[in-house]
Amino acid sequence: MELIYRSTRNANETATASEAILKGLANEGGLFVPDELPKLDMSLDELAKLDYREVAYQVMKLMFTDFTEEELRYCINSAYDDKFDTKQIAPLVHKAGAYYLELFHGSTIAFKDMALSILPYLLTTSAKKNNIKNEIVILTATSGDTGKAALAGFADVPGTRIIVFYPKNGVSPIQEKQMITQKGDNTFVVGITGNFDDAQTGVKKMFSDAEFGAYLAVNGFQFSSANSINIGRLVPQIVYYVYAYTRLVADGVIKAGNEINVVVPTGNFGNILAAYYAKQMGLPIHKFICASNDNKVLYDFFVTGKYDRNRDFILTTSPSMDILISSNLERLIYRIAGNDANKNKAMMSDLTSKGEYTITDEMKAELVDFYGNYASEKETAETIRKIYVSDGYIMDTHTAVAATVYEKYMKDTNDQTPTVIASTASPYKFTRSVMNAIDGAYDSRTDFELVDELNKLSGVKIPQAIEDIRTAPVRHTTVCDKEDMPLVVKEFLGI
Ligand SMILES: *Cc1c(COP(=O)(O)O)cnc(C)c1O
């Protein structure tokens, strides 16, 4: 049976999986969601015998029903290959009382690789299936990690171009260097004088600008998105929750059917939403523990039922979570509103006009599986240092936000359920903040000296992604105001 995707803002706008992947965003700013979440049709015990690629196939075949088996296996096998530095793709590491699901073994050393290494294949396959002749322009806003992972995925992919907007002063030095040294004739990287929300809003505006869309079409282009608003990003993220669960079964930590918790360092709400979808597909998850940094909009939301972005945007040492408008929360709102597009749309227009909306008590009751909390900058640094000292394990700042929140959750509940913490970036990507957390004296060193020091302390091999940028020349220097984003796009496309 074909799974239908529908806009969260208009019940009459539907798409097949491949159409939804191609479009990225629905009209009027809506997001595509599946009408229902299909149940896993292989038992958890059987899934525990499979490797990452096979688990990926078992999940994706249920969600991308208009792809043939051959097409899906081609996409999966092309994505999850030796671009990853371990055959396990997403290893599960038991440290300090939790299971760290290391999602950073891909080519740009952040969890975005888990989805962005397959998205180009899903997208070009979707284009072929739908007889699209236009060149596809991937328009992306990034808080640092999506940009590089999308650039790496789409560089020199025929029939595509990619434009990435990042907040000029809102990413780590290594993140910026990774992006502005990107190779590939079809790549374009732009710093904007604004924050991530400005970049994301600017990109969404271009998507919903029908006139702009028509102008592109006349010139042989069409937009798509590599942000987690694209269902082609979200579905590959369901896979690693199923995989992590089945590793715990395979290792005898749990029996098939037992519950686990997941802790997710959250920004745009894509990663944790994928865990929520995994549960709806039948994966036994007890709590979704949503970890925020000082930009704790989501924590406040889970406590009060009011989403309120009217507050200062705080730059933290976990920049990929410096977000006040968590786009994918809309998919959850739609679901807890009983899949009611009108109800959801009203709340989203409140968010645009007033910067806030409040859910009903009935909707709030649907959120019992979620627990929200946040970590301050000081707590985050302390966690990095503490777990380094106790276990010799060095984690990045985002993962440390999650580990801190897990500690708070344990204090609040004493829940002994085995818990998987999504480890979303390599510590090498946020070397300065990580090393400063361990010892303030490191701050006088250069970024690459710190890389070598981190290597000495952790004994973890320096990733190729870091070696690559030590000497790479800068290829992208464009900076623009947020108002000028459409101009920059036209210029790059030569139209
Ligand atoms: C993107 C990112 C996050 C946030 O993930 P969302 O899916 O946006 O919630 C957390 N940590 C790192 C390292 C990231 O790159």
Protein described:
This protein is α/β, with parallel strands linked by helices and 495 residues long. The protein is built from 22 helices and 16 strands. The chain has helices at residues 17-23, 44-47, 52-63, 69-79, 112-116, 119-129, 145-154, 173-180, 196-208, 210-218, 231-250, 270-280, 297-304, 329-336, 341-354, 361-365, 377-391, 397-413, 431-438, 447-458, 464-470, 485-493; strands spanning 5-7, 10-15, 32-34, 92-95, 98-102, 135-141, 160-167, 187-192, 221-225, 260-265, 285-292, 306-308, 356-358, 370-374, 419-423, 478-480. The chain has a 6-stranded mixed sheet, sandwiched between helices. Strands 9-6-7-8-16 form a 5-stranded parallel sheet, with helices on both faces. The protein has a 3-stranded antiparallel sheet with strand order 2-1-3. A hairpin with a 2-residue loop joins strand 4 (92-95) and strand 5 (98-102). Helix 3 crosses helix 4 (69-79), helix 4 (69-79) runs antiparallel to helix 6 and helix 11 (231-250) crosses helix 12. It is globular, with a radius of gyration of 21 Å. The chain starts with a strand and ends with a helix. Bound molecules: pyridoxal-5'-phosphate (PLP).
